[in-house]
Fold this protein.
Amino acid sequence: MIEVIPAVLADNFKELSEGISRVANNSTIIQIDICDGNFVPSISWPYDEIHSGGNNLEAILAEEEGLPCWDRVNFEFDLMVRSAHKQFDFFMKLGPRRIVFHIEAEVEMDKDRKARPSDLQEFKEFLESIDMYTRDNLEIGVAIDTTTDIKILEPIIGSVDFVQCMGIAHDGFQGEPFDERALSQIASLRTKYRELIISVDGAVSEYTAPLLVRAGANRLVVGSLLSKGYDTGEIIKYLENLK
């Protein structure tokens, strides 16, 4: 069965609470898109509070409260954040079950979309240094843009639990058009890594989802599709049963 993960992109904590509440009854895990305004132009919670202040982030970090619906669902953080691995301890205090690092945000890329070796080595060493207790309680994924060669993943593939392919050309926004290059990228990953969990985020719709699954995806992250007025439970059930 395909795992379907609702996604919430929220400018502030109020929007985050509303977005999570809308889908919490239909999923056991929800992806929270976290945008720093650096790696991507948009800024989402918690960076709105980091930049301008706020009480919700402070209370969560002090363990005085948790994320909305924390007692009912788990959370996957999609970190569209420059050098997010250097802020790993901060994100862990927010209570994720999964974390997704964007490879293009963790390593410097040249004009040919090739990684600086020293950056890639540093990121690899970071992944390998995470203690076993944390790894037993956290899944780590790495996201890759449609314009990045999957060869960049070779040094780190053994240190991550899944790969997230982007279905759009511009990260950090919902409602972006589908980038068909994702299909060949997914197919190449499936051929190279037969047992790999491949997630897709961006432009997952009732039309693109069957193509993504046939290409080799076994997780689908769904954002704007769930705001189209469909019955949330029914659309998730439809996607889960794709083959």
Notes: The longest helix spans residues 117-129. Residues 3-240 form a domain with the TIM Barrel fold (CATH 3.20.20.70).
